[in-house]
Amino acid sequence: MGSLVFLFASSLLLMVAATTVSAAIVEHSFNVQNLTVNRLCNRHVITAANGRLPGPSIRAREGDTLIIHVFNKSPYNLTIHWHGIHQMLSAWADGPDMITQCPIRPGNKYTYKFKIIKQEGTFWWHSHTSTLRATLYGAIIIRPRAGSSYPFPKPYREVPILLGEWWNGNVVDMANQALAHGTGPNISDAYTINGWPGDLYPCSQNQMYKLKVKQGKTYLLRITNAAVDNNLFYKIANHKMIVVAVDARYTNPYVTDVLVVASGQTIDVLLTADQPIGSYYMAARAYASAAGLEFDSTTTRGVIVYEGAPSWTSRTPLMPVLPAFNDTPTAHKFSTSLTALVGGPHWEPVPLKVDHKMFVSMGMALDVCPSNTTCQGPPVGAKLSASMNNVSFVPPSSLSLLQAFFFNVRGVYTTDFPVKPPVQFDYTNPSINGDLPLLFAPKGTRITKLKFNSTVEMVMQNTAIIGAENHPMHLHGFDFHVLAQGFGNFNPATDTLKYNLFNPQIRHTIGVPVGGWAVIRFVANNPGVWFMHCHFDGHLPIGLATAFVVENGPTPETTLPPPPVDLPQC
């Protein structure tokens, strides 16, 4: 293991930068329609792309242009988001419903076109409408430009690992029912690895992902948490992993036997098949941080089979010991031990001058139950909601935010999102739930307007309203430096001294610690409208979100172009 870390450092020193290389056009067609599959003893009709679960993988190189034609042959409105891709000057292709576009109606199509600029690594695509992404998702793998190399030894093989979530039912109907009744999302029935639940579930002995390996070879596992409503622990029996990238940003090598992957995050690890020839389970299950909240406590597993090993069905593979569901110390240790690879490909130093400071309380809330409606949220008679700085986000209904910004249409949104909570309180103290007025957050489409190239620092403060939980917050259009994380209420007098300004990890999605806080910083150098939201689908439609409007820059090269002619209309 130590020699592999040494080779990692040597690879960085020997890395050759390509100066003149040609870029390609990578084109795909996604036919999105109903698909009947057998899972957990039943036949189910799901929404899928090109008849596959997960959907097709996209492979390209840095500098390539991607063109994806999406044909909506399903019965639902839909959009596709290219998770982690910055969409520099191509905000029209970002995909969140009613943020950058109106949905693609059934029977219609839309072509997403964008260039991969100064990005490489593991990304993914998914539906950004309702809960369709439970089955409508796939991998995006961006390799370095031709002539460039990874900042670590070239692996023998690269393997996408997509961790998913499965329901025995129609996910759209279940989500609509939860919204109507004001309750939390339905608990899933299984987790999956590359679409398969694994042999711990009923009728699933032959529905398990299998990875064949050669002893002594090193594999690059490109791991994505595509689960809809859960953060996950992931382990491989008797094997160590070396983390080399998170959210498509290279890290210093970090050796571990367990990963914590928040919903929406990606992690690249080097796995060396250095154990005796045999079979070994890989497994994933929930990291459930919210005390007293029901969750899917099942375990998905796949199997790694060494070349030359006897059939894994004749000899039980070794099973990893997973952390307890609520093992926050393990989750926090992993999440805070990662650092950026200074000087590596596409590394960016921390901006030191801050133009726009924000302190954002975030978490659950309540909403008034409409008249003539039976609501079942906690407490009974109210609807479950969520908010950031006591604003529960509501998307527009007649025009996307990006269209309203580009065409200067008034009345669609306001730019008065508060830079701090309207009322300061003891954010992480559960006793705040006795202050009933504090629990209700007004609805609104209030967002933040930013000058081009301004630097934003945001303290995200988790609250105990309704219950504290680790919230995976995803920012579209940018990556951010994670300066610090901690528990309790953020204290500017002492916690600012903990900022890592040298090599903090760079991400697009962060799990804000349960009952704690995280500080991020990013440069708003991409004109358009960019969504920020909790990546739990059960929390997004009830308001745990906001958006940034970034003004155009001073030159044509920093100005958002007009929308494509086939942009869907509302």
Automatic annotation (TrEMBL):
GO molecular function annotations of the record: copper ion binding; hydroquinone:oxygen oxidoreductase activity
GO biological process annotation, one example: lignin catabolic process
Name this protein carries in UniProt: Laccase
Cofactor info, note text: Binds 4 Cu cations per monomer.
EC class name: oxidoreductase
NCBIfam families attached to this UniProt entry: laccase
Main location: secreted
InterPro entries for this protein: Cu-oxidase-like_N, Cu-oxidase_2nd, Cu-oxidase_C, Cu-oxidase_fam, Cu_oxidase_CS, Cu_oxidase_Cu_BS, Cupredoxin, CuRO_1_LCC
Subcellular location field: Secreted, Extracellular space, Apoplast
Cellular component aspect of the GO annotation: apoplast
PROSITE patterns: MULTICOPPER_OXIDASE1, MULTICOPPER_OXIDASE2
Signal peptide (UniProt feature, chain positions): 1-23
PANTHER family assigned to the protein according to its UniProt record, in alphabetical order: LACCASE-7, MULTI-COPPER OXIDASE
Annotated catalysed reactions: 4 hydroquinone + O2 = 4 benzosemiquinone + 2 H2O
Family label: Belongs to the multicopper oxidase family.
Domain (Plastocyanin-like): residue spans on this chain: 32-146, 158-309, 416-553
Organism (species): Gossypium laxum
Protein keywords: Apoplast, Copper, Glycoprotein, Lignin degradation, Metal-binding, Oxidoreductase, Repeat, Secreted, Signal
